[in-house]
Amino acid sequence: MKHRILSYDMLPQELSGPEPDKPDYRYAAMRRALHRAMQQELTPKQRICLEKRMAGEKVKDIADELGVSSPTVTQHLHRGADRLKHALQYSCFYPES
User: Fold this and answer.
1) pLDDT at 59
2) Which of the 8 DSSP states describes residue 19?
3) Domain CATH for 79
4) CA angle, 42 then 57 then 34, to 5°
5) Rounded Cα distance, 30 and 65, in Å
6) Is 79 a domain residue?
7) What domain range is 95 assigned to?
8) What pTM value is reported for the model?
9) Would the CA dihedral through 39, 43, 87, 61 be positive or negative?
10) Helix, strand or coil for residue 5?
């Protein structure tokens, strides 16, 4: 399975960034909601893994740094992403599937 690097660019097009002729209040609000959700909804390990992965680090490198296996890091990433998706659905920043 090919893994994608998590980033703000993966957000829906209307939230992916400010347009030149429109104010960026929605983008700023989305970033605040995401940051708040990461601080409040994730376990410390999930938050660390997601932050490092969003920064571009490889799963293997994160695992080595934390002293855990790669599947454990992957599990933290998946569970953290699920928690964020659930939390952001209620703040109207993640489209329902």
Assistant:
1) 95
2) -
3) 1.10.10
4) 35
5) 30
6) yes
7) 44-97
8) 0.66
9) positive
10) coil
